[in-house]
Amino acid sequence: MVSVSPQIAVNTAVTREELLGFISSRHHAIVITTRADGRPQASPVTCGVDEGAIVVATYPERAKTRNARRNPQVSVVVLSDDFGGPWVQVDGTAEVIDVPEAVEPLVGYFRSISGEHSDWDEYRQAMIRQGKSLLRITPDRWGPVATGGFPPHLA
Q1: What is the β-pairing status of strands 53-58 and 10-12?
Q2: What is the pTM of this model?
Q3: Per-residue pLDDT for 93 more than 60?
Q4: CB-based contacts of 50: which residues, under 8 Å, 6+ apart?
Q5: Is 40 in contact with 34 (CB distance < 8 Å)?
Q6: Which terminus of the chain has a lower count of CB atoms within 10 Å, N or C?
Q7: E strands within 39-110?
């Protein structure tokens, strides 16, 4: 029988700059907003970092968008591509931006995730045609960057 060393859970406190660096290379997240009845509503999203904020493309009629308009206090759990990899919870204040004002912020969103687009004019027109919105979440507080595993005293 092969012995496997258990993974020890790790929590690493980070500065705002370190937080944004951590998030900028990860694009899978869960946005948690508050429903009108006070209960949480969670949405899996693709996110980026632009100008010091977490950015999420969305539509005006989505629950997360409606909820953030009503109560801008939101949380975002940013995950690694590997589900068992490091993650962080960020609590912040959301701003909802709709087209046409959202067009240039949506360009920043795209760049933060995919780099340059082959035709920015086409992209801008698509965002207008689709009636997109952008959630711009300014981090107010955050937990440590964490990995799952055993508490050190049990490993």
Answers
A1: unpaired
A2: 0.92
A3: yes
A4: 105, 108, 109, 111, 112, 136
A5: yes
A6: N
A7: 40-50, 53-58, 73-79, 88-98
